[in-house]
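Morning!

This is the sequence you dropped in the shared folder:
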Amino acid sequence: MKNKDWLVMEDGKCLPCKSAREWDLLTNEYRLYRFMTEVEDVMNEAVEKETTEADFLPTLRRLVRKLVLNCYWVKTQYPEPCTKTGISIKMLYDELGLPITVQTETILPGEGTPIHNHGTWGVVAILAGKQKNRNWRRSPSPEYQDKIEQVGEIVLEPGDIISFTPEAIHSVEAVGEEPTITFNLYGETEGYKRFMFDSINHQAKHF
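The structure's back. Tokens below.
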């Protein structure tokens, strides 16, 4: 089923979530600046009420879907694929003091990311192509404190939105014959909590 919403938690499980109906989100002149204002309002309220990511991520997923549905400009703001790394990122908004990252990302077919977490919450909307998300969880042992294990995987298509809590661990790969293009929204990264994982040697290092 298209246009699905998902939430990945620290335990690696990818949970299906209720998705807003498109006809409830249709509006005129919904631009990036309106979206940013509404996201900032959600984050300020979350801080004031001390709510968890699981509480406010549904609202952010709804806002991301509203933006992608109504703002054609966002869909045109994607970076050209980088043939050297296979991954390109374009910042859409950057303001000193605003702890929110808004960007689009292009990944060439067959390319992907290392296993990592973000050290913050995240919401990613698939704009084009297909993306495989592999989800992991920590599974420490007396010998390997940074050991992880794969919990599952899911292939996302255009219209799908996936969200993450700060400790969720995943890796992504563009599958199919065309690049994957995504719209990415992240909170303020806590660097000491962000890691890249080596699932073979059972190691983790700051990312």
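Headline: Residues 32-49 form the longest helix (18 residues).

More detail when I'm at my desk.
O.
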